[in-house]
Specification:
The chain is 60% helix and 0% strand. The chain has 245 residues and is an all-alpha fold. It has a domain at 149-245. The chain starts with 6 loop residues before the first helix and ends in a 5-residue tail after the last helix.
Length: 245
């Protein structure tokens, strides 16, 4: 690319009002030889194009890995302007949340609003950082997201986060149900989905801290009940078919 497009023309592309053009120019500059080196003369425009216009997965996530400050600025801009994070940019979002450091996570958590689409963002900010999770639990403005980091399989690190939430005053019932998140997706039979959760909760029953077995008991009983209801419905459908209005 550098052999074909003069710097002044590249600046025009990087500052183009059509973000797809600006993003393509930024990727082209990054991919040209030597790869990963941006010319000093266009660097400021290049950074602005990356921060403002990167939205889709095909745009080079390696850029964020090499320069986490870009990832941090990219995240900040979208929250300050209340931008929706693009579905097509899900990989970019995950990478950005992975590469930012502890202090950037803490600063970002203080700046983020309470938009309904931020559940995934906050889950990624906390990740496996118990310090950041404690900060989140102390942030009353983000109360509706306090249990978002507990979405997912209750493995060993999940237990560590659950203990932090228990210490902050959350009940075993709320913590047990937090694993499912706001939306539930599964393929195949619903009974199989709930059966997996039954098995996931069982190891919690053996934990030394009595509060964790309490969570395991609630989770196991809830998932078992859901599994049995789903199994009954599936048997009924196998015999009688799906009822239609």
């Amino acid at each position: 690319m550098r052999l074909e497009i003069p710097e002044d023309r590249l600046v025009l592309l990087l500052t183009h009002t059509d973000c797809s053009i600006a993003a393509a120019a930024a990727v082209g500059e990054w991919d040209s030889t030597p790869r990963g080196i941006v010319r000093v003369s266009v660097n400021d425009h290049w950074r602005k194009a990356v921060i403002n216009c990167f939205e889709r997965e095909f745009e080079d996530e390696e850029i964020f890995r090499k320069d986490p400050s870009l990832a941090f600025d990219w995240l900040q801009l979208r929250t300050k302007e209340s931008r929706m994070f693009s579905y097509h940019g899900e990989t970019l979002l995950k990478v950005a949340l992975q590469v930012i450091n502890l202090e950037q996570r803490r600063a970002f958590l203080q700046e983020i609003g309470d938009g309904h689409w931020y559940d995934e963002v906050i889950h990624g900010i906390v990740d496996e950082q118990l310090e950041i999770y404690r900060d989140l639990l102390q942030n009353e403005g983000l109360m509706k997201f306090h249990l978002s980091p507990l979405r997912g399989n209750p493995d060993d690190f999940w237990i560590e986060k659950a203990l932090v939430a228990l210490d902050a005053g959350y009940s075993p019932l709320k913590i047990a149900k937090a694993v499912y998140g706001s939306f539930r997706f599964f393929s195949g039979n619903e009974s199989g989905y709930w059966a997996q959760w039954v098995e996931s909760f069982k190891p919690l029953l053996e934990h030394d801290d009595p509060r964790i077995p309490a969570i395991g008991k609630i989770g196991t009983e809830y998932a078992t009940s859901k599994r049995d209801i789903a199994s009954s419905n599936e048997r009924h459908e196998d015999i009688y078919g799906i009822e239609r209005d």
